[in-house]
Amino acid sequence: MTIVESALYALIGGGALLSLVRLARGPSLLDRVVATDTLLVIIAAGLAVHAALVQDPTLLPVLVVVALLAFVGSVSVARYVGGMLLRSRTGDGRDVGLPVAAEEREASS
Amino acid sequence: MTALADVVAFACLLAGAALCLTAGLGLVRFPDVLSRMHAGTKPQVLGVLLVMVGAAIRLDGWANAWMLLLVAAFQMLTAPVSAHLISRVAYRRRHVRRDLLLVDEFAGTGHQDRVYEGDEPGDAPPENPAVRPGG
Amino acid sequence: MTVEPAATRLRHQVPLVVWLVLVWMLLWGTWSWANLLSGLLVALTVLILLPLPHVIDGTRVRPVPLLVFLGHFVVDLFTSGAEVAWQALRPGGVHRTAIVQVQLRADSDLLLTLVAEATSLVPGSLVLDLDREHRVITLHLLPVRDLADVERKKAHVLVVERRLVRAFGSAADVAALEGTRREGVPAP
Question: How many domains does chain A contain in total?
Fold first, then answer.
């Protein structure tokens, strides 16, 4: 059973690490949103696995919160970017406050 | 708790954990935002369901099973909504590798920003300065 | 805001109240009269403060087609889940992807939402856009081998739609679906 337990933690931890890699590398905001969403769900799965292994149900309410947090987070960021695009008159959202690209800042200075 | 139930529970947990690993792998290996959405949100739905089933078998007691069922139901209800919102914004900002697309029946219907042409990050400058807006 | 008969309003609100009370009880984890009463109070407060548009016009639930749909749905979940997982694991990188549009035949808010949710939950297809007026759904498909494969996956969406209409659609919806099939409009 200890082999199965360490295999479970290794699989979950590997998935979480890989999504952290995507979170760090980006390259765009939406990549990071997708990575955060995945990371939170993997964390929820990890909590459930831990609760199942030690047979301790105290973690379950945390599970509900984490599962809903992933949804609220990604929806609010997607709506933020989408709303910026809708209100933008130039199409790229720069006139309503979406960030200026680092490359452009370097070129103009 | 019988041995058979334990074996089923661990099989479900292992399969779910393996799907979480493939979600991470796909997130790193897939080429554009839309493909990464598939990797991120899809093995998860199945993976989370399997993990919840395994945990529900291990933690006997109806109160625990109901709460795990609730988590699974929330996942099934919310995953398509957030996936749709993100993918629509991603398509409009052209986070799509066009060279990997076999068919695009959605193109040319005015759902994309004109100035972005490749798989550039969302905050990159337009590729074609001639049609740059406002400049 | 239009005034509507109390019976209609009741019919629309009762399922929502039941669902909210159920979630409340599941969150507490135990059954008791105190939970039931406080849940009813919370559900009614939520519904009065945040009213929702009505979507369940003329809907009925047929148990046997619903079971058929759920069975196929779970099988789809497993087969395409394995397919997408293999795409992430296989050494050669990913197959090509495709963006396709499918003309749906159902014409009710609830049915279109259900079709979009079901196709979105099954791995390998992602809903990009849903044109309510023309009933056109736009999907992003992940593992695509060739054009024949694209056509097969588009046909599959229509199959899912038919199962859903049979499970949830009103009599008129089912009749409309069968009618388009008999006229020889491309159907799976």
Answer: 1
Which of B105, B109, B111 to mutate against chain C (most C CBs within 10 Å)? B105
Domains: count for chain B: 1
Contact flag B86-A55 (C-beta cutoff 8 Å): no
Interface contact B45-C129, CB threshold 8 A = no
* Helix/strand/coil (H/E/C) assignment for every residue in A20-66: HHHHHHCCCHHHHHHHHHHHHHHHHHHHHHHHHHHCCHHHHHHHHHH
* Alpha-carbon C180 to chain mean position: 21
Q: What is the per-residue pLDDT across C54-67, written as a single tens digit (0 to 9) for each?
A: 665 666 778 888 88
Residue of B nearest to A31 (CA): B33
Find the CB nearest B66 among C29, C101, C128.
Answer: C29
Interval C9-27: pLDDT, tens: 666 777 788 888 888 887 7
**Domain residue limits at B15:** 3-131
Contacts of B97 in chain C (CB under 8 A): 97
Q: Report the pLDDT value the prediction gives residue A17, as an integer from 0 to 100.
A: 92
A14:B89 CB<8 A: no
- Sequence-distant (6+) residues with CB within 8 A of B113 are A85, A91, A92, B92, B93, B94
Question: Can you give the CATH number for the domain in which A100 is found?
Answer: 1.10.287
Q: Which one, of A30, B23, A72, lies nearest residue C123 by Cα?
A: B23
